[in-house]
UniProtKB/TrEMBL annotation:
Gene3D superfamilies to which the protein is assigned, alphabetical: CRAL-TRIO lipid binding domain (3.40.525.10), GOLD domain (2.60.120.680)
UniProt subcellular location: Cytoplasm; Golgi apparatus
Name of the protein described by the UniProt record: SEC14-like protein 1
Known role: May play a role in innate immunity by inhibiting the antiviral RIG-I signaling pathway. In this pathway, functions as a negative regulator of RIGI, the cytoplasmic sensor of viral nucleic acids. Prevents the interaction of RIGI with MAVS/IPS1, an important step in signal propagation. May also regulate the SLC18A3 and SLC5A7 cholinergic transporters.
Source lineage: Eukaryota, Metazoa, Chordata, Craniata, Vertebrata
Species of the source: Chordeiles acutipennis (Lesser nighthawk)
GO molecular-function term, one example from the UniProt record: RIG-I binding
């Protein structure tokens, strides 16, 4: 299709003519290179052409087709005025690594104007205009010729295969893969000792498909059924981010629907989506949000006075949550429960919303990834603008926005009173622009008219308190008795208890001040297991053994970094006078862990004594050839502010007879994202040495 634009293309008026100046074909016909001289009639002012003394400009274009690798590279540079202007353009067509039915296209160009008769800025504008129009038309032109080929009955071009003679010559050195659906095997799989049989079966598909999702994540039916309409670019972003998560958060990646929410929240910018998703996964893990529905029971005060609950679904099949905010005593709830208990209750509501979305997806047979919220403001007054209450509301919005993006499909605000604009002014700056667009606000009884509630909710399920016929089981709220109020000290202790009920601990790691954990082993052949996330910076993980116990650090000699702080603890156990090899020994090779990685592993102890787990600041190595650091290293080091790293970790000692492999032992310690993760973790064999999995 691309070759059809030569020797000239009616869809590109400025492309007047072209001549082949050089051509090369390899003996096996896999490589075909054509070099052409192209004549262009640039859309430039007549005066500029007259000053330059030319009517046309000439470019050299080199097309390199590699049928073996299935790539087409296109290079172009200007021949006219090459001593004054240097234009280089590069385009590339390749096969998508995860789906061979997709073609990837990349294009880049550079412009360097040295001098042009004083018209440098004009020439720059002309060049940018031409280049922009070419980009916009490129896809249109290739589709035009593809359609032309289809009309001629050409819908398939056989793949290149080597001639018989070449096959015989190369059979000992090259083995071609069978034509089958593309599958990406992470490098980490081979590093952990999986054989090729474990990774692929004979048909080329995954040997053990991920539980709860179709075998082929790119299958059109799967996309339509569970994910909705996605462009090829959006599908590609999803695959790339999921693959990165598989490599760094092994065995604990969220479902595609959840990954997709974060991509949509950042307009499919992979880097930005990856950043907020990693932060959210770490937050979920630290506060055990995955288990909140099973392990946390809301206080009776919330069950009686929190005027909100789930109520059927809207016309699009989204779960419907009803909140009678005007009837709720926010001041009383905050005084009786505290900010953290309210936040945890809202988190449980969001977790229930995710579960209901999955159920409705199955019921309605189409992807439902968000819910509708109906907020009734009848009764809203100045009491709701109580400052601590508003502060709690803003905190809740902040946490929900960060960890549940794109879960709100629509927000219907009904019977907004005069005081509402004041509340909206306080709250709206904290709400994401995309979320704000989903708000529909009705004053008085406007919701009963055209464009009102009936456009979004079936008449049969409109709640009775809004004039409907459906009985709504949402609590009516009311004033919380002052006898249930608690003192600030009681609330503070309760809040602390709520958010410290976690098996994970946080630690800060500084340059020159590692964080160390002491584990005493009485019985040889015990198993030390660990599970940690690198929240910030890059660290080196080490395990040491010593026959004698290190002296516990004294508070007065800890130094600036060895203190408990909001960012986490920092404890150093290895005495500065200790010598490696004499006082203690290294029992594992150092493991470099990058920011955002989740690491699990285990070590079978050979001797009793004292084992020290150490998280150490990772300094970028200087260039081997010189003493000067590389530019990449300098830029990377600048990203770690104040030479500080943060880790969140959990350790456990298990008897060898109870140990069933790294991942299964950690599962018993509540490791992983049970609700969001659809991945299964198989039990690996226990080795006499350690196992580390990322």
């Amino acid at each position: 299709a691309y070759e059809r634009r030569f020797p000239t293309c009616p869809l590109i008026p400025m492309f007047v003519a072209s001549d082949i100046v050089n051509e090369y074909k390899s003996d096996d016909e896999a490589i075909h290179v054509i070099e052409r001289c192209c004549k262009l009639d640039i859309d430039a002012p007549r005066l500029l052409k007259k000053i330059a003394g030319v009517d046309y400009v000439y470019f050299v274009q080199k097309n390199s087709l590699n049928r073996r690798e299935r790539t087409l590279h296109i290079e172009a540079f200007n021949e006219t005025f090459s001593n004054r202007i240097v234009i280089n353009e590069h385009c590339c067509y390749t096969v998508h690594p995860d789906n061979e039915d997709w073609t990837c296209f990349e294009q880049s160009a550079s412009l360097d104007i040295k001098s042009f008769f004083g018209f440098e800025s004009t020439v720059e504008k002309i060049a940018m205009k031409q280049y922009t129009s070419n980009i916009k038309k490129g896809k249109e032109i290739i589709e035009y010729y593809l359609k032309q080929l289809e009309e001629e009955g050409i819908t398939f071009v056989p793949r290149w295969t080597p001639p018989v003679a070449c096959k015989l010559e190369s059979s000992t050195s090259h083995t071609r893969r069978p034509i089958s659906p593309a599958i990406n095997i992470p490098d980490s799989a081979t590093k952990e000792g999986l054989s090729s049989k474990e990774i692929l079966n004979t048909s080329g598909s995954p040997a053990e498909p991920t539980a709860g999702t179709p075998d082929d994540k790119l299958d059109a039916d799967y996309i339509k059924r569970y994910l909705g309409d996605l462009t090829p670019m959006q599908e590609s972003c999803l695959i790339r981010l999921r693959q990165w998560l598989q490599e760094t958060h092994k065995g604990k990646i969220p479902k595609d629907e959840h990954i997709l929410r974060f991509l949509r929240a950042r307009d499919f910018n992979i880097d930005k989506a990856r950043e907020i998703l990693c932060q959210s996964l770490t937050w979920r893990k630290q506060h055990q949000v995955d288990y909140i529905l099973d392990t946390w029971n809301p206080p009776q005060v919330l069950q009686d006075y929190y005027a909100g609950g789930w109520h059927h679904h809207d016309k699009d099949g989204r779960p419907l949550y009803v909140l009678r905010l005007g009837q709720m005593d926010t001041k009383g709830l905050v005084r009786a429960l505290g900010e953290e208990a309210l936040l945890r209750y809202v988190l449980s509501i969001n977790e229930e919303g995710l579960r209901r979305c999955e159920e409705n997806t199955k019921v309605f047979g189409r992807p439902i990834s968000s819910w509708t919220c109906l907020v009734d403001l009848e009764g809203l007054n100045m009491r709701h603008l109580w400052r601590p209450g508003v502060k709690a509301l803003l905190r809740i919005i902040e946490v929900v926005e960060a960890n549940y993006p794109e879960t709100l499909g629509r927000l219907l605000i009904l019977r907004a009173p005069r005081v509402f604009p004041v509340l909206w002014t306080l709250v709206s700056p904290f709400i994401d622009d995309n979320t704000r667009k989903k708000f529909l606000i009705y004053a008085g009884n406007d919701y009963q008219g055209p464009g009102g509630l009936l456009d979004y909710i079936d008449k049969e399920i409109i709640p009775d308190f809004l004039g409907g016929e459906c009985m709504c089981e949402v609590p009516e709220g009311g004033l919380v008795p002052k006898s249930l109020y608690r003192t600030a000290e009681e609330l503070e202790n309760e809040d602390l208890k709520l958010w410290t009920e976690t098996i994970y601990q946080s630690a800060s790691v500084f340059k020159g001040a590692p964080h160390e954990v002491l584990i005493q082993i009485v019985d040889a052949s015990s198993v030390i297991t660990w599970d940690f996330d690198v929240c910030k910076g890059d660290i080196v993980f080490n395990i040491f053994h010593s026959k004698r116990a290190p002296q516990p650090p004294k508070k007065e000699s800890l130094g600036a970094h060895s203190i408990t702080s909001p960012g986490g603890n920092n404890v150093q156990l290895i005495d500065k006078v200790w010598q490696l090899g004499r006082d203690y020994s290294m029992v594992e090779s150092p493991l470099i862990c990058k920011e955002g990685e989740s690491v699990q592993g285990s070590h079978v102890t050979r001797w009793p004594g004292f084992y020290i787990l150490q998280w150490k600041f990772h300094s970028m190595p200087a260039c081997a050839a010189t003493n000067l650091p590389r530019v990449d290293d300098v830029l990377a080091s600048l990203q770690v502010s104040s030479h500080k790293c943060k880790v969140m970790y959990y350790t456990e000692v298990i008897g060898s007879e109870d140990f069933r492999g790294s991942m299964t032992s950690l599962e018993s310690s509540h490791s992983g994202f049970s609700q969001l993760s659809a991945a299964t973790t198989s039990s690996s064999q226990s080795h006499s040495s350690s196992m580390i999995s990322r």
